[in-house]
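PT: before anyone asks, these are the final sequences, not the draft ones from last week. 903 residues across everything. Please model them as a single complex and drop the result in this thread when it's through.
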Amino acid sequence: MKRFLSVLLLTVAFFTMCLAAPFVEDSVLTAQGSKNGGTLRLALPSAPQSFNFYGVLDNSAYTVINQFLAGLVDLHPVTNVVRPGLAESWEFSKDYMEITFKLRDVKWSDGVPFTADDVLFTMDYFVMNKVAKGNSVDRFTAAGKQVERVKINPKTVKAVLPAPMPGIFQSLAQANIYPKHKLEAKIDKSNPDSVNKVWLTDTPTKDFASIGPYMLSDYIVDQKVVLKKNPNYWKVDSKNNKLPYFDSLEYLIVKDAEVRTAMFMSGQLDWMDVEATAYPTLKQKELSGAPFTIFLAEPTKNVPSPVHIAFNFDASNINLKNLFSNTKFRQAMEFALDRYRIIDEVYQGLAVLGGVPVLPSNKAFYNPKIENIRRGFDLSKAATYLDELGIKDTNKDGIREFKDGTKVEFTLLVANSPVDHQDVGLVFKENVEKLGIKINLQVLDATLVGQKFGSGDFEAGIRAFGNQPDPELRKAIWQPGRQLYYFHRTTMNQNTKEPDQTYMYDWEKEVFEMFEKGAVTMNPELRKSYYDKWQELYAEYLPVIFLCKGKNLYGANKTLGNAYQAKDGLVYFSTWTAYRK
Amino acid sequence: MWSFIVRRVLIIIPMMFIISILCFAITELQPGDFLTQYLDNPRISAEQIELMRHRYGLDKPAYERYFMWIGNILTKGDFGYSFAFERPVGDLIWERMGWTVIIALLTMIFQWILAVPMGIYSALHPYSVGDYSLTVLGFVGLSIPDFFLALLFMIFMLNIGSTNIGGLFSPQFIGASWSFAKFWDLLGHLWMPLVVVGLGGLAGLMRVMRGNMLDVVGSPYITALRAHGLDEKTVKRHAIKNALNPMVSIAGAELPNVFSGTIIIAIVLNIPTMGPFFYSALLNHDQYLVMTFLMFIALITQIANLFADIALAMLDPRIRMN
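LR: through. Structure below.
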């Protein structure tokens, strides 16, 4: 709590200071000391497809790009607290419809000053370019209108909002700024598609400029990405030492998780995300004196994506459609879900009950009331609920029947990867079949499963979406009538692709309204109350049933400094504050 | 001979055309397309998916896309763009060719250097302890899944404290300029893929060589050679030359396998070859990349078979090209 408060105070301090001071990094990230030099080695699970943030949809590419670019707004690497980035401060107009950003007086790695022109160039040609593969037009659009960008002077830009947009800072944190002087000549302004063809994997590194902690130095195809320290990086530690401490950062491309683990064990990797299946072995080795530390922490990240079970409200079988649309049935299914067994058997105990779907560690939005609403494993209650629905085993063959005499039976669609989805399906199927409902587990290729979910061609299924710190960023999934509200697709008009309240249940209309209000409310407390209500409605009416969320597992080489677990349970590490002891 | 070569080269053209249709049909039969992977990404709207579909031409009918692709190959030598990498597929494949060819050739050499002498020894000492031992060794290599053997080697290397696990170089040597230390480091890594992949094919080659050799040494002309009073060394030389004939055909058929047949092992051993790249292109539905790769393998197969036939003719004067 103290750490949280200190971070908060630090943030407030930044907001109030309008001096051209360097960015002093949160001291918890540099608590173990500092030492310059050396190479930090991390792993990438696949080769980056491009180095163009807005021309690619690839997590490996993002991992690398985020080391050499930055946004106006910065997210704390551990707590996700919003803080100033390339904008050293900002202020709202009285009606919250304008935000004026004062830009930091910093330079790109090649010595060219960072200015408002870079911001406008990036926004105009990349962020708000619908043809750019990784654009963010939707995130900077409200009430059908785009956010307007105005240059006040070389160090000041103003955003004019079409409506209050409280989620804009999260969006800005994920909008890296590009160097206009490097890219303007490379794109064809009359051809919006041309922005996808810059900064590719064969682009010479001299054509890049960095404003992040490192700069791109070399890419050895399918083997390694090399980044060197950016001498003009704008963050310093609490003793005014320039960051990062390491001279270089190397990403080794290692596709297989087993090989990554082996390379970590042999000391070739300094830090990595640990697979749940590898945790017992690695922890045992650590306790036997291996030169690494394995951390087990409460979930704070968007991955691993928390699993949920969905029932299709629009199933083609009319009996199933009526059954799945009935809240009591879904509540019975929650009673039949043995979450603790799944955590023990499928996740080796390395998971927690994950919220609906806001993480309990998300202090800004989590509503603990859902813990009182959530139904625990109780097969007798589940049976009672099913009896009350009028589906009973009338012919005593062990399977319940609908009123028209057909058996209560459905297909549970599961992707072949990740494997834990199938294991969850097996445990769920076992318990539900004890209630006299037959489940046919259908395991298919992940692509095919995605297609079937997307087109509504399923009865029930198991799926997962990653968490995000702000519910606004998950509106496309959890707000009725949106593109990924796949379990009740009739809430969207399939012609206009807009939400249609005709087929929404009352509680869905309420959820819809909560998201609409949350999207335009600037008062944090009032905004949280809307998302609190959403979580309570989800816990009560169960449009989908959430299971659990895997814990954060990390491994750190013992020679690595500023990589540790604090008393609050959080694991602190960043590429710009770590050092070699 | 020359008319044979010209004829075979000319046959390759319609063959490649038919193969291109088959490759396209296969990639079209795969459920979904490149954009399917983005359908469950909340960051990407349905409108954006449609825009991308238009941009990549995926909204056009399949036949139209095929003719566009084949037309660009014939008129511009353009094999299309990778949807994921936004780069010409030819460049992407070329970038990965170096290590793929080196490792493929080294693996073949490793297999042949061991398999041919082992087969000859086994045939000349049939049903001896040596014959049985070599056969057992070969079959152990054949029956252990290569990825499993790779994992066993990795565990072994970890336990003896070695850092030569996966890849072709230690991290500090990747991208470094060549030196003796780098070469030595390469040798420290290279043995693992060579042994793992090589052992898998060793038994088959050895048994073929053994069988050929047994056939040949029992044939009347070998008896005739001996009857003419030739020394045993000369007799064996003639026998080996004749027994090698079928091996040349096998070599031709092996070449495409070394490009595409070691995908899993290349992923497990973290080798920067084309196999894993092709595999991820398949998963991503990167259609032009997949089709070009398949066409490349088909071309290699035909060229390798042509070379094998020519080599066979040079080795065995009894074979007539017409």
